[in-house]
Write a structure and sequence with these properties.
The protein has 230 residues and is of the alpha/beta class. Helix content is 30%, strand content 29%. The protein has one domain: 3-Layer(aba) Sandwich (Rossmann fold). Strand 4, helix 5 and strand 5 form a beta-alpha-beta unit.
């Protein structure tokens, strides 16, 4: 299937011009998401400090939140407008965060075993087909042994009648022959993560409702420490 990851930039151009807060149109969405992520952090599996990379950081809303918590924060996004916006936002807060234009599938700008925490807040479901395996392999590569990753990704089940351009066979939304989102079965997504070498610590499914057309799964995982169980 065809993809157009760089096409995300057009929404950032539009929302920045309209003075929106970021990818989301309202601040309420970010407030709610921060509350949800805080509940995950409160479970105690995530490191409370260290070097953190946000995948698909967008306009930097969540990266700034993590930086305020004391993490040494980095953010990567393929959309140049998003990164410019994130840098401007960090400058107004007088906060140091390294924002980088880059491909989350490759993560070429990051060294092996260099992060304590990788945060995927709604990025993995934007990655299609074999790119997903490559992305997971590179997350594994850049994490330190014992490093932690949190995924918050769309999944099945969905309400097809409420999800525009949903293709049941591929489990993707498809716009003009371009696959834009993937809604895999939870067991398939968990298996992708395990196959990449991660140990799944915790998982929580947020099932779709009559008001919400898609489900989300929150997955906490860890890169094993070599020799720990030998």
């Amino acid at each position: 299937m065809r993809t157009n990851y760089k096409g995300h930039d057009s929404k950032y151009v539009k929302n920045k011009a309209l003075r929106k807060p970021g990818w989301d149109d309202t601040k309420a969405g970010y407030i709610q998401f921060k509350e949800e992520v805080q509940k995950v952090l409160d479970r105690g599996f995530a490191p409370s400090q260290g070097k953190l990379l946000e995948l698909g950081c967008g306009a930097g809303n969540m990266s700034l939140w993590f930086a305020e918590k004391g993490y040494e924060t980095f953010g990567v996004d393929i959309a140049p407008t998003a990164i410019q916006w994130a840098r401007e936002r960090a400058a107004t807060k007088n906060t140091w965060i390294q924002f980088c234009i880059g491909d989350v599938v490759q993560l070429n700008d990051y060294k092996n075993a260099s992060f304590d925490f990788v945060f995927d807040g709604h990025c993995l479901h934007c990655i299609i087909g074999n790119d997903r395996n490559l992305m997971l392999e590179n997350i594994f590569r850049i994490l330190k042994p014992g490093g932690y990753v949190m995924f918050n990704t769309m999944c099945s089940p969905v309400f097809p009648e409420k999800l525009e351009n949903y293709d049941a066979e591929s489990k993707c939304t498809i716009h003009k022959d371009v696959a834009t989102r993937y809604f895999g079965d939870t067991e398939f997504i968990l298996n992708e993560i395990k196959t990449a070498g991660f140990e799944v610590i915790h998982q929580e499914l947020q099932t779709c409702t009559s008001e919400k057309s898609v489900s989300y799964i929150v997955i906490e995982a860890r890169k094993p420490v070599e020799g720990l169980n030998e």
